[in-house]
Amino acid sequence: QVQLVESGGGLVQAGGSLRLSCAASGSIFSINFMGWHRQAPGKQRELVATITSGGSTNYADSVKGRFTISRDNAKNTVYLQMNSLKPEDTAVYYCNAAGKYYSGSYLRFGDYWGQGTQVTVSS
Questions:
Q1: 97 close to 31: Cβ distance less than 8 angstroms
Q2: Could you tell me whether strands 117-122 and 18-26 are parallel, antiparallel, or unpaired per DSSP bridges?
Q3: Which end of the chain has fewer CB atoms surrounding its CB within 10 Å, N or C?
């Protein structure tokens, strides 16, 4: 199995910055996709950004130009640098990782989620 541990959330004023980190550990063979999603109160969870093992990135239109996703493949860690934060960015941010892990002598595909970290942007 794979565990994801997020860190870096908190309270920041509008226009400020935060950096989220998410480290994957466990019986990892390879992680293809890593990403961040968020869920604001009363709203559905939405994709924020994803990154492949090769470094290809994808962003929600609402964060393009403000957020940057990156990863350290050697550490199985993904980062989200969030700049020019807005009150509407307030949400619980969840890390996601999809890839293969060892299960006994087999390789299995898994899609894992972290427990979430709160980001609050005050106006």
A1: yes
A2: unpaired
A3: C
